[in-house]
Amino acid sequence: MYQEKLAIVDIGSNTVRLVIYGIDYDYYLTELINIKTPARLSQHLTLVDGEKVMDQAGIDKLVRALESFRLVTDEHHVDTIKPLATAAIRQSVNQEDILAQVFDRMGWQIEIVPEVAEASYGQYAIMHSTSYKDAITIDIGGGSCEVTLFEDKQMKEYFSFPFGTVSLKEQFFAGKEHNDKEAMQELSKFVSKQFKQFAWLKKAKLPIVAVGGSARNVTLVHQRATNYPIAGVHGYHLSLDNLEYTLDLFTSTSLDKMSDIDGLSSDRVDIIIPANLVFIELFNAVKASTFAISMQGLREGIALSYINTTYNSPLDTELIKARAIRQAIHLFPIHLDGAQLRVNTCLDLYKQMCDLEQFEYSYQTQEMLEFSTYLYMFGSFISAEAESQHTFYLLSNMNLFGFSHIERLRLALLSSYRNRSLFNQYLEDFDGWFSESSQIELQKLGGVIKFCQALNDSQTAPIHTLNLSRETDGNFTLTIEHHGPIVAEKYRTNRHIKHLERALDGKLSLNYRDIASQEA
């Protein structure tokens, strides 16, 4: 099933995490194992003559965690193991002793990730999992904060700030309550000053894409608090008001009640406020248009870079959405020949309708139509009776790289389109997501897909060509050229003609022409 199993051991300042990926023969990454321990290694850094030294207790804690992880990698027969260390060990002047003890005691050679590499790996993951061409990225850990600027999907600027959630907590909240107002104000002033040092950050007016556990936790808390109707944080957008909402929730909750906040990890209750404040200060410094979340960060960047360098660069940053759809096709039992025929028919008909000014052509609409038509009613593999419901639920709750949440919902609505009443039922939980005109267009496009599905009802590919024309009376005729009898297709298209007709500004007639009989 997998051509290789790759393990990334991420030794951070706050947590030590093991992720095992399966790399299949189409170069898709499947996360097989994801475990962590909140080691808080940065708390084991002490100042000796003005330099940071990791104490022996911290080294022992690290070795115990790695020994436990080695048992897991052995059990899962991992082919390649990459133990990587970031800020806590990188900042330690005794790093050679740390690495030597780890190697001598349990046999793993740790690689220290330089600041620029840490920033670039996170950016590499983002550019392979989102559609942003220009953005600011942030990945805040326990002891450092990596911020980058990328333009046209190329990293142009970066800086690794020497602060993180744990170190900020220690610097500003030592001996104080977790929500001390004065500490929060001092932290915000400090972070704001740090960000404003860089001209490429000030007033960049670009979207911010955040990765890492703190960003995920803030997002989950906001989703749960607002009863967000679909699953997944990848592609989720937070406004400045949203970030201030979560901060207000954290500051108004006593420390002993913080773990009761839905979506907040218990090992982040004391460091989530510093993280939230950093996000707000970056948003303000950048004058950002939005604050988006990516599930793909340092570890995924390392894994994706490994795939491209090991397997002759199979991953393309320009085809993220198409690759996400191919992965969905790969995961679910979709009949590709039938799907491709449906796509060809649907795109042909869409373009003819655009030529007749029934749709205003856009590449984005064509792309979404193509993706939706590939996946149309694939939920039938669970139950043919409820194929629409299953299709809608699975697509609206899947993490699809390159798709924002509203794009994911649009894909789910089109791929599951059966009729207007069911369409409106699906939208009940998404009040305000689409304008009335957008809903009407989605229903029209859904009707086109449904009609094109009917053109191959027998799964024998009998349709040769379609020709949509406007008659002198302003109505339309669709001439359907086919090979041989099409009893099933005639029955189904005559039943579904109303769906296509709703996308036209006139009546529609169907004209069937049997090419086989004419050739004979």
In total, how many beta strands? 16
**Number of folding domains?**
3
Portion of residues in beta strands equals: 15-25%
| Largest sheet data | 6 strands, mixed
Q: Determine the number of helices (DSSP H or I, runs of at least 4 residues).
A: 19
Radius of gyration: 27 Å
Assign the CATH topology of the largest domain.
Answer: Hypothetical protein af1432
Tell me what the structure shows:
The protein is an alpha/beta fold. It has three domains: 4-113, ATPase, nucleotide binding domain (Nucleotidyltransferase, domain 5), CATH 3.30.420; 116-297, Exopolyphosphatase. Domain 2 (Nucleotidyltransferase, domain 5), CATH 3.30.420.150; 321-519, Hypothetical protein af1432, CATH 1.10.3210. It has helices spanning 56-75, 87-90, 95-106, 115-127, 165-172, 181-195, 213-225, 240-251, 272-286, 298-310, 320-331, 336-355, 363-374, 387-396, 405-415, 420-426, 436-454, 487-501, 515-519, and strands at residues 4-11, 16-23, 29-37, 45-48, 51-54, 80-85, 111-112, 135-140, 145-151, 154-161, 208-211, 237-238, 291-293, 463-470, 476-482, 508-514. A six-stranded mixed beta sheet has the order 10-9-8-11-13-12, sandwiched between helices. It has a five-stranded mixed beta sheet with strand order 3-2-1-6-7, sandwiched between helices. It has a three-stranded mixed beta sheet with strand order 14-15-16. It is elongated. The two termini are 50 Å apart.
Characteristic terms for this protein:
single chain; 520 residues; alpha/beta; Nucleotidyltransferase, domain 5; Hypothetical protein af1432; six-stranded mixed beta sheet; five-stranded mixed beta sheet; 16 strands
